Amino acid sequence: MSVTFFVDDIWKEIDWKTIGIPVGSAHHEGCKVLLTTRSEEVCIRMNCQEKIKLSILSEDEAWDLFKDKADLKDYASLQPGIIDVAKEVARECKGLPLAIVIVGKSLKIYKSPGEWRAALERLKDSTHLDDGDDFEEIYSCLQLSYDFLKVKNIQSCFLLCSLFPEDADIDVEELIICGIGQGLYSNIYSIDDKRREIRVALTKLQKCGLLMESHRIDQSCVRMHDVVRDFAHWITLRGGNKFLVEDGLAELVSASPMIESFRVCTVIALWNTKIKSLPDKLEFSELKILILEEEAKGEISVLVPHKINKEDNSLSIPSTFFERMNALQVLLLRNVTFSLDALQFLPHLRALRLSSCKLINNISSLGGHEKMLNKLEILLLADTVIEELPEGLVELCTSLKSLLLRGRGYCNISPNLLSRLSSLEEIFVPVRNNVNLLELNSLSHVTALTLSIYTTNNVECFEESFVFPKLQRYSIFVNENVNCWSSYSRMLEIRDFSYSLRAFKELCCNMEVLVLNNVEKLRSLEDLVDTTPTPNGFLQELKELRIEKCRRLRWVYQVNEKRHDETRLIFPQLQRLHISECDGLEQVFDFAKETPFWLEVFLGGF
Fold it and tell me: Taking phi first (over 0 means left), then psi (-120 to 50 degrees means alpha), and beta for anything else, what does residue 279 get?
């Protein structure tokens, strides 16, 4: 006999026998159990043989479900105009079955187009956050999912996701900046470990259905459904951390009722603002996170500090603007004109990101405010030109762990600056610069490095005994700007290079992408370690290999009797191999013995 049991809304692993469902007996081979849950982790713990994930409904599917729940099947009995408005209401539910079912049921009592129109407007402008009984059931259901998270850090990650604009891709790295700056996972010291924990939290939120996957293939973003986002705002309105998120705000006047409502907020995010000017100062004593982004006006012209373009009409932030925001921990600015003098009022700032901003003065102007940024852990300047990163930054940012300088032009870093920022764990300088590699020897905590290196600045490093430290993540480009953001975590590209390659030997244990172009002394990949036989782990994680214009190359990897482990594949994960214009090549390697079963190969230009 075949029996199917339906068990709905499971929140944790259960023992089937305790509810009378026998398992593990040959006498019950025809029995099946179908369970529903909001958590993928429950499916894994229950050893489900097949998992079916319910996606967001298409517009047609959503309308079919909505008209069934709202009792709209009999068009002839309805007043003219209701169906058109009802379809708009269904679209506002954005395909979320929970919202469609509950909103549909709650609106089935409405019989006039006016009532339906009012409901639509309330759904659009989120006035239901304050006084909408119609949405209480939706929020009660979502509250269960939120409470089931249990861990406060994960709940905080969920709330931070609601800071971003409606329907937007949420940049995970930007979210990480906010999380670390706010103090999430404060019991963990390492920035990289905190980043990992936040990514784990986001994965858990996706598995619980509170976040959605982005359409981007590089997994750099997540998404939040509009109804779930409204629920998150509803939570903050009732808790101690009140959020305010506005998109396209046109005015911010110090004496306005809106400002009065802002004063109790701990988090404010103003996206795509059209504000013409800001007050000299605003008293937001509780504010911990501020995101302010002016609406982009086409191509951003980045100004050199100390020079103000009279025709520039970007939003200017007064130097006294933050004077009464002493609790601020995270400051993210984009497309604004900004005076660095304003930072003197932010002693608790932990994370600062300036993107496409115009700086009125240079960082060196802050020299009179020693240790005023001694809690700053993350400094990110993206498409924001500075003349120089001065040595005085050491006194200003004594706790700096992550430094990112990304943009256009040349980045001049004062000699001995990096070596004195002893807490640095992450360095991202993908533009042309004057970094001296010997300074890295003094930074024992560095685990992540994105850097453009030029041999003109580092001749002595490659001629002597410098060796890169072991790194967990890196994108290192020699004699080349970092010109791509790969989905891989560990990448090395060397161009126009005539020195020994041994400086890179510690990177070979976990390298994923290797590009060698016009490397004069390269005879085989063994030159990277300068030892025979090659050490254990040598290029075992390599996925892509490109070698071009290396005229002395004789073999990619020499197969000989010195190999200490004849059973080991030298490139077990290699997926793509590209070799061109290497005139002296005699042998690649034994494809049958040295590589995985599937490999894409290009050999050309000989």
Answer: beta
HSE at residue 311, side-chain half, CA atoms within 13 A, is 3
pLDDT at residue 464, as a whole number: 72
Helix, strand, or coil (residue 555) = strand
How far is the CA of 67 from the CAs of 70, 71, 75, 81, 522, in angstroms?
5, 6, 10, 14, 70
Structure tokens at 333: 């600015």
Note whether 431 and 405 are within 8 A (CB).
Answer: yes
59-125: which CATH topology? Answer: Helicase, Ruva Protein; domain 3 (1.10.8)
Q: Does residue 485 have a pLDDT over 60?
A: no
The CA-based dihedral angle spanning residues 215, 221, 225, 229, taken in that order and rounded to the nearest 10 degrees: -170
Both tokens of residue 320?
A: 């006294």
CATH 2.10.50.10 fits 138-238, yes or no: no
Tell me how far apart the alpha carbons of residues 504 and 519 are, in angstroms, rounded to a whole number.
Answer: 13
What's the whole-model pTM score? 0.79
Report the candidate in 154, 142, 152, 150 with the shortest Cα–Cα distance to residue 203.
154
Rounded Cα distance between 330 and 318, Å, is: 18
Quickly list DSSP for 40-87. Answer: HHHHHHTT-S------PPPHHHHHHHHHHHTT---GGGSPTTHHHHHH
pLDDT for position 199: 94
The structure tokens listed for 141 are: 């259901």
CB 358 within 8 A of CB 314: yes
How many angstroms separate the Cα of 33 from the Cα of each of 5, 87, 239, 503?
5, 36, 40, 59
Q: What does the radius of gyration of the chain's CA atoms come to, in whole angstroms?
A: 29
Asked if 562 and 533 touch (Cβ cutoff 8 Å), the reply is yes
Q: Can you point out the beta strands (E) in 50-190?
A: 170-171
In single-letter form, the type of residue at position 33 comes to V
268 vs 281: CA distance, rounded Å:
16
What are the structure tokens assigned to 377, written together?
């852990």
Per-residue confidence (pLDDT) for residue 542, from 0 to 100: 92
